[in-house]
Write a structure and sequence with these properties.
Blueprint: H1 2-23, H2 30-56, H3 61-105
Helix pairs in contact: 2-3
């Protein structure tokens, strides 16, 4: 009974710890939102491209190829922009990891030695 109660208490505190972890900006939610925005934008670009392709079908094969090329270029640019956004947040997360590793490695602060001693 005691172990079950301890497990329940641990899970309750774990949820609170996750909430404070999220609210304390230790974990960024922007990369997840950027991925969601990417998929919505991808769908919109595909819909716009398909609509443009259908509208261009009455104007000749050249216009259809140009629309297809514009669609592919738009998809590529949208992917690159999304990756750059995620890259910015990944750089931040890596810098935080480096900071934490350096803090663990140097537990005692370095003492600055004077360039000249009193007797010199």
């Amino acid at each position: 009974m005691d172990m079950q109660n301890n497990f329940t208490m641990t899970n309750k505190y774990r949820g609170a710890a996750r909430l404070f972890y999220l609210l304390g900006f230790e974990r960024l939610i922007a990369p997840v939102l950027i991925k969601l925005i990417y998929w919505v934008g991808l769908a919109l670009i595909l819909i716009a491209g398909a609509t443009g392709f259908v509208n261009a079908s009455g104007e000749g094969i050249g216009r259809m190829l140009l629309t297809l090329f514009a669609l592919l270029l738009s998809l590529l640019i949208w992917r690159l922009v999304s990756e750059l956004w995620i890259l910015a947040f990944n750089i931040y997360e890596r810098l935080v990891e480096i900071r934490d590793l350096m803090a663990r490695q140097t537990q005692t602060p370095a003492v600055i030695q004077p360039a000249l001693r009193d007797g010199d």
